[in-house]
Amino acid sequence: MTIGISKERLVELKDNLSDNQSKLFMQLLIAECKELNPWLPIESAPKDRRILLKYVNLKVVGEWKQLNYDVGYFVRDRLQYEPPLNQPTHYQEI
Questions:
Q1: What is the span of the domain harbouring residue 18?
Q2: Distance in angstroms (rounded) separating the CA atoms of residues 55 and 62
Q3: CA 47 to CA 21: how far, in whole Å?
Q4: Burial group, residue 66, by CB count within 10 angstroms (0-12, 13-18, 19+)
Q5: 14 and 46 part of one domain
Q6: Same-domain check for residues 17 and 51
Q7: In terms of pLDDT, which residue wins out, 82 or 91?
Q8: CB count, 10 Å around CB of 10?
Q9: CA 25 to CA 19: how far, in whole Å?
Q10: Quick check: 61 and 91 in contact, CB under 8 A?
Q11: DSSP-assigned letter for residue 63
């Protein structure tokens, strides 16, 4: 589990400040924010461990299955076969 504070929460906190110097500090902090665990393109997904897979309307845990030297596909947990036409678009580490 990733622990952190969202960019949206920082903006909310900044908007509730009355001191201009504190607001400036918060604005600079917000400008440096990066998403803690971004969705990455599936092409760069690791093929040696379980990851979180993002399909068009679904997010599930799964992993890469290698069929032979040059053929493989991602499978969702608890499924026997994942048709190549229904592949995930992005992934996250878990």
A1: 1-36
A2: 11
A3: 47
A4: exposed
A5: no
A6: no
A7: 91
A8: 16
A9: 10
A10: no
A11: E
Contact 51, 89 (CB under 8 A): no
Residues 56 and 17 in one domain: no
* Same domain? 44 vs 88: yes
* Residue appearing with tokens 């500090």: 25
Same domain, 31 and 44: no
Tell whether the model's pLDDT for residue 34 goes beyond 70.
yes
Given its phi and psi angles, is residue 48 left (phi above 0), alpha (psi -120 to 50 degrees) or beta?
Answer: alpha
Total number of domains in the chain = 2
Q: Does residue 44 share a domain with residue 28?
A: no
Per the listing, tokens 């665990």 go with 37
pLDDT at 79 over 60: no
Is the pLDDT confidence value at 71 over 60?
A: yes
